[in-house]
Amino acid sequence: MIEILMKLEPRKEEKDTIIFYELDDFCEILFFMKGAIDIGFELNRKRFFVLRKGAGVIIADHGCTFGHTSVFIYKTHSNCEGFSIRKLDWLSIMQKPELLPICEQIKQKIVQDHFFNIKIKMNRCKK
């Protein structure tokens, strides 16, 4: 796990910056320690941001881990500070044989978090 810490890069984003649009490829995982982000969608060329995540939020972990594109729009609500890890670095760490038991637990947690805390809530609002 020290290898993950060694690959982290500092990241800052200004208020109202779009981080990912719908259908964007995720190229990095973001760990914001300060600030808040909004998650939303676009419908008939109007943007609706219905979910706000505060400090300690992780963005794009599901997409990078499983190779999915963005289903929602991610925008900063305030100035955000944290760290990022590039997708290729993340995947190389997750595929190391000595870390497979831990990585399987991490993957399960990522799926649960994405499904229950983002996907269900967003799809409910989208309907």
Would you mind describing this structure in some detail?
The chain is α+β, with helices and mostly antiparallel strands and about 130 residues long. It has helices spanning about 1-5, 60-65, 85-95, 100-125, and strands spanning about 10-15, 20, 30-35, 35-45, 45-55, 55-60, 75, 80-85. The strands form two sheets. The protein has a four-stranded antiparallel β-sheet with strand order 1-8-3-6. The protein has a four-stranded antiparallel β-sheet with strand order 2-7-4-5, with helices on one face. The model has no long low-confidence stretch (mean pLDDT about 95).
Please specify the SSE layout and strand pairing.
Layout: H1 2-7, E1 9-13, E2 18-20, E3 28-34, E4 37-43, E5 46-53, E6 57-59, H2 61-66, E7 73-76, E8 80-86, H3 87-94, H4 100-126
Antiparallel strand pairs: 1-8, 2-7, 3-6, 3-8, 4-5, 4-7
Q: Which tags fit this structure?
A:
127 residues, alpha+beta, 4-stranded antiparallel sheet, 8 strands, 37% helix, 35% strand, globular
Tell me roughly what share of residues is in helical segments.
Answer: 25-40%
| Count of alpha/pi helices | 4
Strand order of the largest sheet: 1-8-3-6
Structural class estimated from helices and strands: alpha+beta
Number of E strands: 8
Overall spatial form: globular
Name the beta content range: 25-35%
